[in-house]
Amino acid sequence: MEIIRLIEDNIGYILFDLDPYLNTENLKRIYEVLNEYENDPNIDLIVLKSRLKQFCSGYNLDELINFNEADSKIYSFLGQRLIKRIRDIKKIVISMVDGDALGGGFELALASDIIFATKRSRFGFPETNYGIISGFGGTQLMSRRIYETFTKYLVFTGELVDASVLYEKGFIAKIFENIAEMERFLNELKDKIKERSIFAIGLAKEVINNGVEIDLDKALLLEQNAFTVAFASKDKKEGMTAFLEKRKPIFKDRWEEFKKL
């Protein structure tokens, strides 16, 4: 797989090309590009997308068959590091799935904030067919969204399911007829996000992602603290003033600037 970096209209694309598999170097490269995009004030959305007939087939067995325990530990670490980076980054990360998203590819999609998929797309964890299990956190990402029994079914059987099945269970935000329709919708979403506070979106993402990991009392306190932080931002004053003045707000607070402090 070749990882292509493309920035277009406030969208930072991470494009998969040449072959549908994730190897060690690709995991490192995607991680590096995410870090670049996080620090770029010209990027509001980050999109994972493939130029192939599949989104991503995950692990490459030609590589993994030669792994020993130490190799597999490093590979799993790199994959899980990438998954955590996708969740920790303050910008919205979208997986645009057209075709199969299997194993590590499915895990990348699950780590994203939003999954869009075409009707022809399929998802699954085929690892038990090869004598291994998922290694990038997919079992945990799915089961922490309440669907423990469904996660076990997919992992135990290795069965592939259509996008419609995951849509019904709330994993996929929207299904499209084809990739062209999905791209048109992405452009509409991009324009909508431009009118929102990127700073507030980053706060909300942090609260949602971290809140599911802790008990309710701690999660409520996390939300309360983030709510208070929002009131210290210029975007809060601009947003409320614009509403009262019946005009569109011009938000300027960016996480890139806060990281420099």
Question: How do you describe this structure in short?
Answer:
By secondary structure, the chain is α/β, with parallel strands linked by helices. The chain is built from 12 helices and 11 strands.
Structure report:
By secondary structure, the chain is α/β, with parallel strands linked by helices. It has two domains: 2-193, 2-enoyl-CoA Hydratase, Chain A, domain 1 (Alpha-Beta Complex), CATH 3.90.226.10; 196-260, Lyase 2-enoyl-coa Hydratase, Chain  A, domain 2, CATH 1.10.12.10. The chain contains twelve helices and eleven strands. The protein has helices at residues 24-38, 61-64, 69-88, 104-111, 138-143, 148-157, 163-168, 179-194, 198-211, 216-230, 234-244, 255-260; strands spanning 2-8, 11-17, 21-22, 45-50, 58-59, 92-97, 100-102, 114-118, 122-124, 161-162, 174-176. The strands form three sheets. It has a six-stranded mixed beta sheet with strand order 1-2-4-6-8-11, sandwiched between helices. Strands 7-9-10 form a three-stranded mixed beta sheet. The protein has a two-stranded parallel sheet with strand order 3-5. Strand 1 (2-8) and strand 2 form a beta hairpin. It is globular. The protein starts with a strand and ends with a helix.
